[in-house]
Amino acid sequence: MEHKMEHKMEYKQSLPVFSQSITPRIIIHGGAGNILPANLPPAKYKLYHDSLLRIISNTHYFLTSPSSFPLHKTSSSTTTALDAVTYAVTQLEDNPLFNSGHGAVFTRDGINELEASIMVSSGKKKRGVGLMGLQHVKNPIKLAREMLIRGEQDLEGGNGEHRGPMSAEEVAFMQSHGAQGHSQLHKYSAEKLAKEWGLELVDEKYFFVQARNLWCCVP
User: Fold this and answer.
1) In whole angstroms, what is the distance from residue 208 CA to residue 217 CA?
2) Are 100 and 93 in contact (CB under 8 A)?
3) Judging by DSSP bridges, how do beta strands 184-186 and 114-119 pair with one another?
4) Measured at the alpha carbon of residue 52, what is the angle toward residues 51 and 55, in degrees to the nearest 5?
5) What is the rounded distance in angstroms from the CA atom of residue 178 to the CA atom of residue 185?
6) Which of 44-48, 50-54, 74-78, 93-97 has the lowest mean pLDDT?
7) For FRET with 98, which of 55, 104, 120, 175 sits at 20 to 30 Å CA-CA?
8) How far apart are CA 180 and CA 175, in angstroms?
């Protein structure tokens, strides 16, 4: 027993000591379709390159300057990783060069159906959420963020399935504050929540970009 205890103490002492100060890193991936160097002129390449650098720069400023973009922030006094990720992806969704949001890829049926997911390593009851088949939510990543945040109330004490029948007041609360315990939602149910939560909805034509249509859907 003594030998085991000594061995355990030695192992504990050998663990690295991490500093309390953490320098955040931002990594983005700008999906742009099946584009090869052979069909991407230098000027077009520069357009993509400069856009990615601008998004990185904007997000870094957002992350390190908490008071700069109050409309995008949570009630926290500091900008969180969740805030920064949402802000970065929103810029990708708003830029028609990239294949999400405005400029999204087309399905085999020739329509735009959007997806988004967001994950955290700790701090939330739901560690990750996903959305599929969206056709009217301007920024799917914002809806995913809301699902994650509102999931705190949604799962408080368990949803109705786990704790028995709910009162009418509890049902109304769940419908307005969360996704009824779900971590993934599809199309109509997801867009219904987006409308209830006041997120911006657009006509499905908003996502159409002719260049993306040519890349994806022309034989």
Assistant:
1) 12
2) yes
3) unpaired
4) 85
5) 11
6) 74-78
7) 120
8) 7
> What are the structure tokens assigned to 125, written together?
């009851």
Identity of the amino acid at 199: L
Alpha helical stretches, state H, the chain = 2-13, 42-64, 81-94, 140-154, 160-163, 168-177, 187-196, 210-217
**How do residues 117-170 score in pLDDT, each as one tens digit?**
999 887 766 678 999 999 999 999 999 999 888 876 655 544 434 445 667 776
Dump pLDDT digits (tens) for 164-185: 566 777 666 655 556 667 788 9
Token pair for 212? 């993306």
Count the Cβ atoms, other than its own, within 10 Å of residue 188.
12
Residues 6 or more apart in contact with residue 211 via CB below 8 angstroms: 96
